[in-house]
Amino acid sequence: MNQKQTNILSDIQTLDLLEKYKIPTADFRICNDLNEVISVSKELEFPITVKGIVEGIAHKSDLGLVKTDIKSEGDLLKATKEIQNNAQSHCLSGFLLQKHIYGKRELIVGGMKHNEYGLCVYIGIGGIFVEAVEDVAFRAVPISEIDLQEMIYELQFKKIFQSFRGDPPVDTQKLFAITKSIENLLCNETEISQFELNPILIHHDTPIAVDALAIKGDVPIKDNLSEITSLDFNKLLKLFEPESIAIVGITDTPIKWGFRVLFNTLEGGYTGKIYGVNPKRSEVLNIPCYPSISALPESVDLAVIIVPPPAVQPSVQECIQKGIQVVLVITAGFGELNDESAQSAQDKLKQIARDNDLYLIGPNCAGVVSPDPKKLYCSMIGRYPQPGGLGILSQSGNIGNTAMSWAMEHHLGLSRFISTGNEAVVKNYHYLNFFGSDPKTKVIFSYIESAKDIRLFFNELKHVTKKKPVIILKGGKTQAGSRAASSHTGALATDYRLFRGICVQQGAILTEDVYEAVETAHLLSNVPLPRGRNVGILSQGGGWGVISADVCTKAGLNVIPLSEKTLERLDAIMPKWWNRTNPVDMVAGTDMDLFKNSMEILIQDDEIDILVILGIGYIGSAYMRLQNSERAKNLGLNKLSEIGTQFEIKDAEEIARLMDTYQKPIIVASDTTILSHGQNINPVLKKLEEMNIYVFQNPTNMAKSIAHLCRYSEYIRNTPRTF
Hints:
This protein is of the alpha/beta class. Helix content is 39%, strand content 21%. The protein is built from 24 helices and 30 strands. The strands form 5 sheets. The protein has a 7-stranded mixed sheet with strand order 13-14-12-11-15-16-17, sandwiched between helices. Strand 18 and strand 19 form a beta hairpin. The longest helix has 26 residues, at 637-662. It is flat.
């Protein structure tokens, strides 16, 4: 780490860059010997910091070449002699004297050139522990002031940017100017590959650089932004809405994919024409088979290839000769393998497809689903979600399976699903462009292990997020995940910090697991976007209200005090012993209209942007339980719970009415979902889901999804988060 490096700019060259780009630094002088050090110290005045000038050393303090907060001439002489002694194995050419800056807060601000991501800048918590703390946020250039605010908000230690131990908040305008200076430096100085200020000390409210590192290097940035990221919409539409399909490799052996894909397609009720290709069969499941693709009676809209890897290329070439324009290759054994011949086979497929303007999907993918209008469920995955607005594009068929299973369970309608596989020809950004233009798709969920041509992906993402929400789940974030990703779909995981930062910059919503993604998709599909982050909570129980307030606050939401007007209105209907705070505890009140009336009072409060409802469905849950109890029937409790359930169903209908009337999101969570499954469905929860109101099982997931909802609303309104 402390060996001499020839690619590091000298101190004098680095200081020249600081001056050239007007980056504020501590006042400094360059000295050649001890006599000059003493003379110059009188100009700077104590306290002083002194550094030994040694070329090619990145972290001089580790070698004892930096002495800080020197308060006298005697201490200065002692410090310089110690530096001379510590530098005996290095070439000490002089001393750098700086006016010592006092600051309780240390930041790091820098920039880098990345061959895939391009020019990026970052800010974070600086000092000697920067690598241990790893609290940094990245963005691609150019950045805006909103980008900087978002970067600060992402930091775990963001509170130090506020008033801190007697010092005022950090002047973020000055911090933004420094960040833009680094951006300009990297754009203009072609030989510089990385530039870093660490630490930047915050002196009162002003950021001042006290150390800088400039690294030379030739980083060839992939310049492909002029490439077209869209495909012919109507041609790609044949993938999702084909009038006819040919399944190449169809078979009547149930354990083989050639049977399962056909079976799933038939089970889904596909309304177009299906042909099979298998020279050894005349029909399978009443579907006519033909000996070859060329023998098909027509040129189909979509060919699905499920044959051994050596037969894939001849099948693709036969499709081209038949005039088929869209081919989906389910067969694996290509670029996802760490095998030169397999990669070469994929490269040949790619070249054949490009030479003939063929839209080749995959290889190594799980299929395609598009419920409307053809009831297309042509997939290895036997899942049949209803039509709706969620579009799923996934590099993993398994993740797509999970998302569609959840969508079926919770009545979240699907517009399209495509398993993108190895993306040899049609890339993630092509699908993203298609989904962005697709009128059937309202919300997009993308599972990514590696986006091909990442800057093209980001460029397309920026355009699509202005039209509709894009939720991203990234696989391969850690070293272990990266190894799994490379063996799974041939996608080496990228640096997640860069990926995450730039995705957020382009308006995407990043989630940590598939359930968080689909729950957020449900909200984005069915509730109005909030105007702010102020949350009102109405709870059927005290504990859930307390926990929800905690997790909402942790997620960056504001559980605000209720206005005096709202408190007075609630006083008029609540029991006298109610808690008079937010969250509002229903304190086990027995008035059957109390829940409905309390909701309306809270939703009418202009300061509340989001209303959270906790604990609906308790009577409905009791009703389901008491139907099988003879004791309950003898006491008439089953009938009583049935009447109470009807009141709860009316409350559920009131939630939908209030949300529609006031155009504010109402979010529901209840532990009664735990007992509502299979044949034992809670009628109240069933009613809510019929009205497209999702009921969260726990407050933590709920708070995360609400925060994503707020984040997208802020992005659309071009409003930065505050902290």
